[in-house]
Amino acid sequence: QVRLVESGGGLVQAGGSLTLSCAASGNILSFNAMGWYRQAPGKQREFVAVFERGTTYYTNSVKGRFSFSRDSAKNAVYLQMNSLKPEDTAVYYCYARFNIGSQQNSNWGQGTQVTVSS
Fold first, then answer.
1. Residue (of 69, 64, 63, 57) closest to 8 by Cα position
2. How far apart are CA 105 and CA 57, in angstroms?
3. For residues 85 and 101, is the Cβ–Cβ distance under 8 A?
4. How far is CA 101 from CA 52, 72, 98, in A?
5. I need a surface site. Which of 50, 60, 69, 91 has the fewest CB within 10 A?
6. pLDDT by residue for the chain (118 residues), tens digit each?
């Protein structure tokens, strides 16, 4: 029922910037948590940024470079990525955790590729 669609990925040189967008079919203000994860080839999916209970948490490697935001009017969330490094190369996934009635659920988008060249 809740669908997440990412966009904004692409190819950028090291030091450049990209903004990722995630459009949600549900009301993001009712979600328990939203955020971004990423997965590089041969590696586990790792959290990048998660907003929960009024606080945004970032993985150490992106602190000071990435910024999470929400736009309730557009029912979307964003990840502004600055000072990109080759090690940021990965598929980035939007994440949401939410309730359907009394049942907790979670969902992922299909991902958007970010490639940072050196």
1. 69
2. 20
3. no
4. 19, 21, 10
5. 60
6. 799 999 999 999 999 999 999 999 989 999 999 999 999 999 999 999 999 999 999 999 999 999 999 999 999 999 999 999 999 999 999 999 999 989 999 999 999 999 999 9
